[in-house]
Design brief:
With 149 residues, this protein is mainly alpha-helical. 33% of the residues lie in helices and 5% in strands. The chain has one domain (6-133).
């Protein structure tokens, strides 16, 4: 089984952690403009594709208005899968609310989380699945105890 690139996922987690909740919408790559600016709304993947450190590593935002992430050889979810070393199941950390990695575990509690919190929970659940260590403080309030449904 392919192991995700947890070093890159840690970097991605830190980047998204610094973006306001109100600027995250998991249903769109990017809205409003070609660059991150006041009023820009994007999903986690959209924000990561605009971030300079991710750009240096080969993930970028397609120049069209939608901002789809791309690499040298792929775009969209295929690009994310290859860049972060994800499989078809774990690539769903980037899906819309209710469709993402381990979202079903939450049941009605999914509505308790902002889209940013939901994305962070998905990443940390992936860490849990691979017994990859993380600071428990970053998981507070993310319902990481809701498992196995």
């Amino acid at each position: 089984m392919q192991r995700p690139n947890f070093e890159l996922l840690r970097d991605a987690f830190a980047i998204i952690d610094g973006i306001p909740d109100s600027a995250i919408n998991l249903w769109t790559w990017r809205q409003k403009g070609h660059e991150p600016a006041c009023g820009t709304i994007a999903c986690a993947a959209g924000w990561l594709a605009m971030h300079p450190s991710m750009n240096e590593l080969g993930l970028r935002s397609r120049s069209s208005v939608d901002g789809m992430p791309e690499t040298e050889s792929a775009s969209g979810f295929s690009a994310l899968r290859g860049f972060f070393g994800l499989n078809f199941d774990s690539q769903n950390i980037f899906e819309g609310k209710g469709w993402g990695y381990k979202d079903r575990e939450l049941g009605g509690r999914i509505d308790d989380l902002s889209e940013k919190q939901l994305w962070k929970r998905r990443v940390l659940r992936l860490f849990q699945e691979y017994n990859e260590p993380f600071d428990p403080k970053v998981g507070e309030g993310l319902h990481l105890d809701a498992r196995g449904q």
